[in-house]
Each structure stands twice: as structure tokens, then as C-alpha cells.
Amino acid sequence: MTTNRPVALVTGASSGIGKQTALALVAAGFEVAGTGRDTSRVTPLQGVTFFDLDVVSDKLVTAVVQQVIERFGRIDVLVNNAGVGSIGAVEETSLAQAQGVFDINVFGVMRMVKEVLPHMRARGRGRIINLSSVQGFIPAPYMAVYGASKHAIEGYSQSLDHEVRQYGVRSLLVEPAYTNTGFEANSAKPDSPLQTYADQRHVFDRLMTEAIKAGDDPAVVAKAIVTAATDTKPKLRYAAGPMAGRARMLRFVPAWVLDKQIRSMNKLTG
Questions:
Q1: What is the Cα–Cα distance from 263 to 139, expressed in whole angstroms?
Q2: Is 146 a catalytic residue?
Q3: DSSP designation for 178
Q4: Which Gene3D superfamilies would you find in this protein's record (predicted)?
Q5: d(Cα 23, Cα 41) in Å, to the nearest integer?
Q6: Residues 42, 219, 248, 268: what is their CA dihedral angle, to the nearest 10 degrees?
């Protein structure tokens, strides 16, 4: 089947931000292809066609992108939303665990882009929207691996945008702050926990739980994604919600002010 409506492919669309994004794009007039690792368990969403996909698999990424193109005739917008959290001190996190986070959060994005970009470039149009985080540009103590993965997405996405803009394709960033999605409950915990970090890690866990509970609704992030997908003159970055907008200002403060603020926010001593 082909369609005259714009087509969006959203990874990680079975819950949280991805689910709300899929629904918001449908409401904005898009045909939406959503992915999840096991869509047989997903409650059907009107206007969303689901495909099974694990973004760590080169073979599955290639197959699903081709299936979406064959079904709808094109892909106008790619939303790289699939991701995983990671909580724990650097010394408590094994390299294998860190590699697992990067395989989803960074290389998963790269796999999707490598498959979708030639199609967009050949058509002379398209938007790639990558989900970053405010922790993609500010320090993230006790979430260093996750923060590093989002820093990587920031650099990758900005560089990509400069490469493909001349071909009618844009690579854009959406930067949420704390979002009420159960992020902390689903994040990987340290696989080599150390007693020396236990007290501070427990403090961080409590602060994170409170921040997530008070965080933005996923629909707030979805709205920013739809704006990025539809803006006539798109911006490189979109802050998702008022908290993210305030955090963005930390880019411009003196280093010592940021340092003090990070330590105060995370109840760090010394």
C-alpha cells in the first residue's frame, strides 16, 4: 500500500514517550509505523502499524525499514526513541554493561539512520529526530554511562545534520528532562555494586524516583517531537517541556556555577 499522507517510523513505540509520540503523530495527520521488541504484547493503537524490532540487530533493522517502505511507499520522518537507562557509579558498571547501553542508545540510532538515510536522500527530503536528554549536555553523576550515550547522540546528530542538509534531510534533537515514564524502574542497575558508593547511590535513587514522579507527562515530549517533525523551518534542538527549557540555560553559565549546581542538585559532598 502507498499513501499520500506523511509517514513516520517511531522506534520504541510500545510505551512511554514512544507510545505518546506515535499517537500524537497520528493526530497530526501521519501514517505511523511503530516498533517494539515484542509487539504481540502491545495494545493496538488506532492509526499505528506495529513491527517487531530490536535495534541491536543489523538484520532486523534492515528488514523492518524495507517492510515499512514497501507497505507505505516512503518514510518522511524517523524518530529514534528506543533507548535504555543505566544507573550506578562508573566504577560499579562493567564495560559489558556499558557496551549494552551504547548498543541500544547510540549504535541502535546509527543502525536506523544508515538504513533510512539513503531512502530520504534519494527522495530529497526527510527528518531524522533523535531523542537526547538534558543529560546529553550537562553532567550526570551516578548515570555516567547513560549521560555519555546521550552526549554521543548530541555530537552525532549535530554532525549528521551538517552533512545531509544540502540533500533536503535534517537531523534534529529533542531534549527531555525528567519524564514520568518509570525510567528509573526500568534502568539497568550496577552489575558490580561497591559498598563505598552504596550510601550516595541510595540518595541518588531517592532523588531520581522523586524527580521522575514529578516529571513531565510523556505527551509533553511527544508534542516537541511533532513540532520538530512539522516545523517549516526546523531548529537543531527542541527542549521538551519547561524543565528542559530551564536546564538548557545551564549551557551558558560559568563552569564553576554549573559545577556547584550539579553537586547541590545531587546532594554530593566534598
A1: 10
A2: yes
A3: S
A4: NAD(P)-binding Rossmann-like Domain
A5: 18
A6: -60
Taking the C-alpha atoms of residue 103 and residue 163, their distance in angstroms, rounded to an integer, is 23
The domain limits of the chain are 7-265
Question: Residues 50, 51, 52, 57: is their CA dihedral positive or negative?
Answer: negative
> Is pLDDT of 129 > 90?
yes
Is 150 assigned a catalytic role?
Answer: yes
**Active-site entry in 19, 86, 142, 146:** 146
Residues 18-63 have pLDDT tens digits of 999 999 999 999 999 999 999 989 989 999 999 999 999 999 999 9
Give the active site residue among 19, 150, 156, 178.
Answer: 150
The label of the residue with cell 518509570 reads: 182
> What number does CATH give the domain 7-265?
3.40.50.720
Biggest CA pair distance of the chain: 62
C-alpha cell at 154: 548530541
- Region 133-147: what's the mean pLDDT? 94
Catalytic-labelled residue, pool 19, 86, 132, 133: 132
Q: What number of other Cβ atoms are within 10 A of residue 155's Cβ?
A: 10
Q: What is the DSSP string of 7-73?
A: EEEESSTTSHHHHHHHHHHHHTT-EEEEEES-GGGSPP-TTEEEEE--TT-HHHHHHHHHHHHHHHS
Question: pLDDT tens across 254-268, in order?
Answer: 999 989 988 998 889
* Burial degree of 46 (CB within 10 A; 0-12, 13-18, 19+): exposed
Neighbouring-strand partners of residue 143: 88
Residue 82 and residue 210: Cα distance in Å, rounded? 23
% of residues, the chain, pLDDT over 90: 80
Residues 6+ apart with CB under 8 A from 245: 239
Q: Is 197 a catalytic residue?
A: no
> How far apart are alpha carbons 232 and 67 in whole angstroms?
28
